[in-house]
Each structure stands twice: as C-alpha cells, then as structure tokens.
Automatic annotation (TrEMBL):
Designated name of the protein: N-acetylneuraminate-9-phosphate synthase
Catalysed reaction, written as an equation: aldehydo-N-acetyl-D-mannosamine 6-phosphate + phosphoenolpyruvate + H2O = N-acetylneuraminate 9-phosphate + phosphate
UniProt lineage: Eukaryota, Metazoa, Chordata, Craniata, Vertebrata
Keyword Acyltransferase among UniProt keywords: no
Domain annotation AFP-like: ranges: 294-353
One MF annotation (Gene Ontology) recorded for this entry: N-acylneuraminate-9-phosphate synthase activity
Amino acid sequence: MPLEFELCPGRMVGGEHPCFIIAEIGQNHQGDLEIAKRMIRMVKECGADCAKFQKSELEHKFNKKALERPYTSPHSWGKTYGEHKRHLEFSHDQYRELQKYANEVGIYFTASGMDEMAVDFLNELEVPFFKVGSGDTNNLPYLKKTAQKGRPMVISSGMQTMDTMRRVYELVKPINPNFCFLQCTSTYPLLPEDVNLRVIQEYKSAFPDIPIGYSGHETGIAITVAAVALGAKVVERHVTLDKTWKGSDHQASIEPSELAELVKSIRLVERAMGSPDKRLLPCEMACLNKLGKSVVAKTKIPAGTVITLNMLTVKVADPRGFPPEEIFDLEGKTVKTDIEEDESVTEGAIENYNTRTKC
C-alpha cells in the first residue's frame, strides 16, 4: 500500500484516504485582500480541502535586471516586471490576516514558497505543509532546506524529467519521508495532448512508498477527475472568480461552479473505485434472480441416462438450476430422476454430484 502520512492536522493522504483537493488561488486575487478573502470562502463552500496562495520575497526570487525588465503585457500591473509582481504580492501582515480568515472559515491554508526566504516566513506561520512549485523542483539547495524544516511537502514536477525526479526523491526521502509528487505540465492553459496522465502510473511504479498526485492547468474538470481514477491522492487546480479578469493564470483556472463540480465528481469517482475483489454483490441479486440463466434440458432425459452436452441448453428458467458456467461439469454425470424437456437441471436430479462452493 502506498505510504500514508498526515498532510494537515487530522487529514491523512495516500492509501485509501480521500483525495486531498487543493484550490490554488495563487495570485488570482488581483492584489486585493478582500478578493482573496472572498476566494478563500468560495473554495471552502465548493468543498475543497485547502486554499493555497503563492508567497515570494521578490528580491530573493528575482535578480535586479529581471525586476527592472519592462513588462508590457495586457496582463501587467506595472511598467516593469518588478512593479507588476509587487502589486500582486501580499505583505507578511496580510498573509497573517488571510491565515486567520481561513481558520475562521474552516479550511486549511498554505502557500507555495517561491524562494528560501518565503519558505522561512511560511514556516513561521506554521502552515500545515509546504508546496514546492515546479520552478523550484530542481532547485536542490532549496529542496534540502525546505525538507529539513520537517513539514510535509507537496512537490510539483512541471518542466522536470524523470531523472530529475529521481534525484529529488533521493534527496528528500532521507531527510523528510512525508512528501508526495504531483504530475504537472507547466503551460497555461494546458492542451490535453500535453497532460500525460500515464506519468502518474509511472511515478507510482518508480516511487511506490510515496503518494502521487496531479496538478493541472487544463480547461474543464474531466482530466483531473481521470487523474483521480488513475490513483492521484492529491490534486491541485488554479481557481478564479472570473476567467476574463486581467492576469495570465485566469484562463487556465476554474470558476466556482466548475470547482464545485470537480469536488463532487472526484468524490463520486472515489466511491465508484470500490474494491478490486470481483464478486457477486448483494445489489446484483435482484437482477440475477430475474435474468440469471440456468442449465435446462433440451430434450427429456430419463432417469439412469448419462448426460451428454447435446442434451442441455441454457435459458432463464424457473426454478433456478445449475449456473451456465457448470454446464461442462455435467457432462458424464448420471441422472437419477427423470428431467422433462425444457425443465431446469438441478442438483437433486444428478447422482453423486459434488456441490460446488458458490459466491
């Protein structure tokens, strides 16, 4: 069984536990604290498990030239990339306020620490787990320092190779065993042909002692639901209040109605996954009693006759007789009482028949 661990207080992931659903608010709050709070409440009402943001200490994530780069995109909130990012970045006090609000609403709260200083701050906030964004998954010093803090980790794998993910596993596992990988493709929005859900199965094979999940940037919810059917134990989707809002992430995000439907569909699929034990279920008995077939006599079979297959056929019959899968076992058996044409063949009519154990 895949490793199970406590991702948040009282909430296990992996094994047979329900899929943990992360609603990635990210920076879709437009830099507005009240919108951020509305989004926290929205994801709680839609049934998600966690509201997640992105925290950066900009001078530690970007160098000066990157921050001074002109940013003329229609999605820009400033003349330079630095001005744009500062508009969207909440302060430490604002993060504390958002965390307090999430606690009041009753939903887990965390963020992706986009640099080592941001991780230090999130650790001070005592978030339940660290989310490692795809851009830092091959940042080995960052990963080591994050793992050493001892909190559970959710690690996305966009822009990475299988060789890199093996290195990440080998680095993190001895330090902090409580982590999982998310299959992810880093493009916004994500085309179906670039999703590669089969990587989930490959991860499960390569890393059998950690849970595997999925972080999606596609449109709609069907692919994420399919990921859960393939065994994803954690899923993450970007969310927005309005896909038409300014910002490059909104088009790859899902709106409240979609999030609610996603949660509902995931829980439905989890119920449907059921047991790998194939057996006759109690709920099937009504159908079996009405339509289940039995072995019947194709012609009259007198007492003392040794049965051959050409004497038998299969029909829906009253009373129930031998099930069709035992018809070949009847060949060569002796009939001890007359069986009329079109009559069910029952155990009582067969001499020395060894009753099989039936489900």
